[in-house]
Amino acid sequence: MVIDNNRYLQKKSDPTAVQKEAIELTNYVDGMYDALNIQVVLTGLEIWSDKNPINVTHGSAGDVLNRFVSWREKNLLKRSRNDVSHLIIGRQAFNGAVGMAFVGTVCSQVHGGSISTLNGDDVLHHATVVAHELGHNLGMKHDDGRCPQSYIMYSTDNGSKNFSTCSANDFENLVLSGGGNCLKNAPKPSDVFTEPVCGNKVLDKNEECDCGTSQECTNPCCDAATCKLKSGSQCAEGLCCENCKFKVAGMECRPKMNFCDLPEYCNGTYPYCPDDVYIMNGYPCNNMKEYCYSGVCQNFDSQCKSIYGQGARKAPDICFKIANIVGDRFGNCGMSGGKYNKCPTEHSLCGKLQCTSVSLGNLPATSVVINQDGVSCVTSDFNLGSDIPDPAQVHKGTVCGEGKACVDFKCVNATELGYNCDVIQKCNDRAVCNNNGNCHCNPGWAPPFCDKSGYGGSIDSGPTHIDTSLRDGLLVFFLLVLPVIILIVIAVVKRDAIKRKFCRKSRRQRRNDDRQQPRQNNGPNHSSATNSQLATKNSGIFTISHFPAP
Q: Total domain count for the chain?
């Protein structure tokens, strides 16, 4: 959570009072989300006590929101990891809008943010505003026309403290579509801003687990009374915790979603999956024709499909030029001061998305069709409310020309996407660079610089190889070494008995040979005297027998 300088001054420049208000506000919001089984935790608090690093007075709520998420991406996330950030501004509403948020962008480093305005001391009421905007980040749309207006996600501020079934379904859809991966990891105790209390479902300092009160707790690994792990348990929750034990190092905990994404693995000693990492922004993808941005290979066709269905694709460039130079709700390059911006012709591909071969169906939007050269170009206004940015704007990082990409409604050199990694020098040309600037080594090479043999991955992803050395060692010991040791011990213990048994067998064999010797000599076939002599000598009896000549 970020508190702007205006709010800091409203609280008489008292950082303790600001922190207390932020914690109180978060606790109220957390209580509202409890019914959805969502835990809201304050993992960082930044107070702009000197001055605001972004302009929060000029322009519309959308302008300020865009400035905030841009500052978050370039500044805040490098210092403080978070699933979503919220800026509280000490001022009156923006033309009636008390807040604004991107929809379904929790976990996004680019758009994972929201803002709200607070100009009084009614913290409980403002908590409903924050809960509303956070709901948008979690994929929740307005309840208007779907559910009754007496819930948090209704478009008009009504002070409700409860979520509707529509909101619950929206959040479930976000999770099922893979949009909330970062929500599965609990924050580190050292990152939590709260009063430490056992039983509040927040992992505070000196706690090993916290599953709620004794009446609420259903976790078999955690002792609710002490917030300590039960005997024999290594962990109580997390993607790398199973049956109260750490998963083995190298077990994949977050798979690669697409070309621009990277997988993460358990390290064998920690219950949570490493932070989500992906290929550095600006890396070429799709046969060097497009660019990775925020873990996705950005292109017009995929954006059209996400809105209009699988058959949709990018409209011809002329459709973008015709629509986006107008500067209305169906064609623009964003908004400033509550008014739509006209796109200069050279930037028209970076404004409102224009698609063809669409399926409008039950699309909750107003659409217009432009017929150009026999092609029907479609653009839509979703009219989601004053607190939600237009979801039909071309994404940042989308190719708009040879070596160019869209950045903030402008078609600029693709170098502005921020790719700055020399894999030849840094990674020995055996890796790609992730969004932290570290080498993600190819299989066969070890991080951090891919200069030694190994199993691939990066220092951020966790070990990519399942460590079976202990298992293999135990198998060798129990299947090979232990049986040999047992045989040796038996041989040593029983050596006298074995020796006696062997000696008795040898004496018995000699006696049998003595009895059989005369019968052999009187048989019908007789050997020569010399042979007879040798035979009897070899048997240990030194007698010479004489036989008459035939």
A: 2
